[in-house]
């Protein structure tokens, strides 16, 4: 699976021409797809969508608008919440490589890596901090540190190696936190132009840890990955 069509997306199954025969506006991460890529669709229940066609060809992926344009019609039974899957992959357990969203789950139910979470309560569950849409604050890094200490023990060497992973939007939010506390010495400012308070690049760290930004990471989410523990 490359993406799941959000419930808020707009799907145009067919009717257009050229590179815009069909489209899906409002996917999560359009840049995870490539131009001319062939994909297929599955329901959340694992049923492949085959109405009129079994695959579709992406003509162009538009990253800024999170839109996928297709040069072919989509299967007529594609709906929101469907999974967009690499053509050639088969749906089901053991047929895919699980990503961060599959491993980092705050739950003691279900399975992961062939193990039942209920048989190892707490050991296969990842603590989460849900901000419910609120803005990122500097204290989040320390809240995560508290959870790390509780999970691994305060003296665990692995705690020192954790890195943050997330999209550039979160790096932007972190940078905005810094702008509020910048201090400029007006006596050292020369000329008649206003001082440029904006920096060219995002911050490389958050809470003293490396922030690895990825344009294919899920929006509105950051993961603290202790890679040695993994």
Structure at a glance:
The chain has 230 residues and is α+β, with helices and mostly antiparallel strands. It is 13% helix and 20% strand.
Descriptive report:
It is a single chain. The chain is α+β, with helices and mostly antiparallel strands. It folds into 2 domains: 84 residues; 97 residues, no CATH class. It contains 3 helices and 13 strands, in the order E-E-E-E-E-E-E-H-E-E-H-E-H-E-E-E. It has a 7-stranded antiparallel β-sheet, with no helix packed on it. A 4-stranded mixed β-sheet has the order 11-12-10-13, covered by helices on one side. The model has no long low-confidence stretch (mean pLDDT 88).
Provide a count of the helices: 3
Name the beta content range. Answer: 15-25%
Strand order of the largest sheet: 1-7-4-5-6-3-2
Classify the secondary structure makeup into a structural class.
Answer: alpha+beta
| Whole-number total of structural domains | 2
Query: So what's the overall shape?
Result: flat
Tags for this entry?
alpha+beta; 230 residues; 2 domains; 13 strands
Q: What layout of secondary structure does this protein have?
A:
Blueprint (H helix, E strand, L loop, with lengths): L2 E2 L5 E3 L9 E4 L12 E5 L13 E7 L4 E4 L12 E4 L13 H4 L7 E2 L2 E2 L22 H14 L10 E4 L1 H12 L25 E2 L2 E5 L9 E3 L5
Parallel strand pairs: 10-12
Antiparallel strand pairs: 1-7, 2-3, 3-6, 4-5, 4-7, 5-6, 8-9, 10-13, 11-12
């Amino acid at each position: 699976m490359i993406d799941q069509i959000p419930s808020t997306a707009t799907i145009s199954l067919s009717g257009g021409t050229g590179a815009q025969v069909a489209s899906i506006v409002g996917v999560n991460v359009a840049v995870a797809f490539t131009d001319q890529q062939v994909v297929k669709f599955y329901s959340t229940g694992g049923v492949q969508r085959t109405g009129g066609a079994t695959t579709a060809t992406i003509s162009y992926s538009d990253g800024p608008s999170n839109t996928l344009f297709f040069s072919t019609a989509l299967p007529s039974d594609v709906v929101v919440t469907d999974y967009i899957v690499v053509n050639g992959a088969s749906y089901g357990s053991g047929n895919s490589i699980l990503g961060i969203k599959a491993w980092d789950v705050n739950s003691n139910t279900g399975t992961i890596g062939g193990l039942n979470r209920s048989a190892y309560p707490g050991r296969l569950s990842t603590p989460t901090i849900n901000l419910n849409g609120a803005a990122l604050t500097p204290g989040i890094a320390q809240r995560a540190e508290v959870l790390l200490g509780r999970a691994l023990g305060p003296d665990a060497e692995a705690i020192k190696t954790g890195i943050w992973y997330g999209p550039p939007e979160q790096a932007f939010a972190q940078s905005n936190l810094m702008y509020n506390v910048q201090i400029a010495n007006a006596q050292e400012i020369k000329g008649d132009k206003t001082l440029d308070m904006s920096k060219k690049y995002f911050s490389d760290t958050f809470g003293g840890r490396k922030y690895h930004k990825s344009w294919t990471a899920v929006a509105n989410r950051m993961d603290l990955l202790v890679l040695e523990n993994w």
